[in-house]
Amino acid sequence: MNNQTSRSLTFLILLLLAIAPLFADTDPGEIYRVVDKDGNVTYTDQPPGDGSEPMNLPELSVIQTDPAKKQGEVAPALEREESREVNAVELRKKYSDFKILQPQNEETFWGTANTVVVSWGSEVPLQEGMTVKLYVDGTPREVAGSGGISLQLNRGTHQVHAELYAGGDKPLITTPTVTFFVKQASVGPNNITVVPDGD
């Protein structure tokens, strides 16, 4: 063995002896609680010089999850939600003309014996599963997808609007509110009755 090899080997041995104490008696999972003279508490993974024992910590609870399964369960739910949103946007465009057809806004009804016909609908036939709620003065009623209904109303101001549903809890389309008036001639000494020509 030549001098250079011998020196290199000696240097390597000395180096290992110098760093060995750094790794002796230390467990990377051990935690020490250190209280200084002022009562300040610190926690460290380095053993203090006073010979303190490491703390006994409870074992960590580890729950194993299957990332592939978790993704597989969440992804279809998100896809279904996105699909419903896209479908709702398309249906809103398709039925954008859904509205109250009769009466006209601010229309007044005279001499109809308090009867008013309300109708609603769209030029596009409603799909299976679609439903309509008609609100008369704030009271909802289930009605056919398109068509009309005859109402007996007291004289005065009334409002009507309709909601189109496509199977969900939220309306797909809500029509503007139509306000109309039901009036009738009063019977009394000053009542003037207009009779059309020819009667």
Instruction: Give the termini distance in whole angstroms.
Output: 141 Å
Look at the structure and give the mean pLDDT. Answer: 77
CATH topology of one domain: Immunoglobulin-like
For this structure, what is the CATH homologous superfamily of one domain?
Immunoglobulins
Radius of gyration: 42 Å
Total of helices? 2
What portion of residues is helical?
A: 10-25%
Q: Count all strands and give the number.
A: 11
Structural class: alpha+beta
Helix and strand run:
HEEHEEEEEEEEE
Shape: elongated
Tell me the β content: 25-35%
Which parts are unreliable, with pLDDT below 50 for 5 consecutive residues or more?
188-199
CATH architecture of one domain: Sandwich
Outline the structure in words.
The protein is α+β, with helices and mostly antiparallel strands. The protein has a domain at 94-183: Immunoglobulins (Immunoglobulin-like, Sandwich), CATH 2.60.40. 25% of the residues lie in helices and 29% in strands. It has two helices and eleven strands, in the order αββαβββββββββ. It has helices at residues 3-23, 67-94; strands at 32-35, 41-44, 99-102, 107-110, 115-121, 131-136, 139-143, 147-152, 156-165, 173-174, 178-183. Strands 4, 6, 7, 9, 10 and 11 form a six-stranded mixed beta sheet that branches. Strands 3-5-8 form a three-stranded antiparallel beta sheet, with no helix packed on it. Strand 9 and strand 10 (173-174) form a beta hairpin. The termini are far apart.
